[in-house]
Amino acid sequence: MTEISIGIVTYNSQNTIGQSLASLFAFWPDAACRVYVIDNASTDQTLEKLEPYKDRITLIQSDKGNIGFGAANNLVINELDSRYHVIMNPDVYMRDNKALLTMMQYLDSHPDVGMAVPKVVDEQGELQYLCRRNPTLADLMLRYSPIKIAMKRQNYHVMKDHDYNTSFEVEFASGCFMMIRTDLFKQLGGFDERFFLYVEDADITRRINQTAKTVYIPQAVICHAWQRASYKDLDKTRMHLRSIWYYFRKWGFYLI
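RESULT FIELD:
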């Protein structure tokens, strides 16, 4: 059994995956983890960018085209033989050798915690507020509104009423980087594959929190080159809204 496994789903990730893997292997010894790269039928040079790491990763390629983020992550479930499994985006970069170790040590000493998430900063070192409360209809309706009450609600949704320099429990953790107990990940059957993209992280956090806890660990810091693509691409916006609609149908339509 390995201590840790890492799953990275790629889809046309040629601009980021090389740097992501380079940072990971620079700060984490090969023997301590097994890295899976799951490619969702990329049409750019993603596979070429993986060549320098072919002896250090396990490459899994979807034979059904782009099957979605959650479904692609689930392709590794039957291969996992680790204590902890990390879901990591291809645009995430490790800043040091402490993040993974700190999260593992926290889970080791807190058996009631099922998932840990780190502090996430952008490439300039600015904090990204990615710990959130469970989404409601009010959060969706006020998301793009400039009025003052909307900003107050948005700040509440991303838990700005908490100190991001201390640990706290999270209802909705970002899927850009999450460390889950492997046994729990398997028990849940991984992600709900009916979410093609977006909000699958809200769903899996909620399912984890039914039997365990999700905790934010500020001592573990990673860099996320966040693109916020759903706000720039009409097709991705539609995809996002479909996922939100399915989420509310599954968990209930709560106004606030």
